[in-house]
Amino acid sequence: MKPFPYEEILNLGPPQSGKHPKMAVADRAAQFAPFSALTGHGAALTETARLTERRCGRDDDIAVEIDRTLESLRRRIALRPAVTVAFFVPDERKEGGRTVTSSGRLKRIDEEAGCLILESGRRIAVGDIVRLEEGE
């Protein structure tokens, strides 16, 4: 009978390098982990899934109320009245945006630019105001 050609290596263990230490199982497994073939695809999906609000037009009653409050604030501007303003902020990346509420003391009303300026430095366009309330 002919001898089996690989009999001397059949029962040997895996080869060991004399130069390199044995790799940890976790590191070895990481070599074969899937890679992201579509770079940025996950970020694009996250951005698409992010919800925004539609800009709603102001009805006449709300516009009249905001104008009335603005007029009252113009007369009292020297007192730096406290205000709470809800306004629409357009999204920078996609259609829509969100409504933000900010409170503080009114520094001035810039008629030329059409915005309110709070003491904090925040500028709010009058056209974006959804609700305007006077404090104290």
Overall pLDDT score? 85
| Number of strand elements | 5
**Cα separation of the termini:** 108 Å
Major β-sheet strand ordering: 4-3-2-1-5
CATH hierarchy, class of the domain at 60-134: Mainly Beta
Describe this structure in words.
With 136 residues, the protein is of the alpha+beta class. It has a domain at 60-134: SH3 type barrels (Roll). It is built from 3 helices and 5 strands; from the N terminus they run αααβββββ. It has a 5-stranded antiparallel sheet with strand order 4-3-2-1-5. The longest helix has 16 residues, at 60-75. The chain is rod-shaped and about 115 Å long. The model has no long low-confidence stretch (mean pLDDT 85).
Walk me through the topology.
Blueprint: H1 25-31, H2 41-49, H3 60-75, E1 82-90, E2 97-110, E3 115-118, E4 123-125, E5 129-134
Antiparallel strand pairs: 1-2, 1-5, 2-3, 3-4
Short description:
The protein has 136 residues and is α+β, with helices and mostly antiparallel strands. Helix content is 24%, strand content 26%.
What keyword list fits this structure?
136 residues, alpha+beta, SH3 type barrels, 3 helices, 24% helix
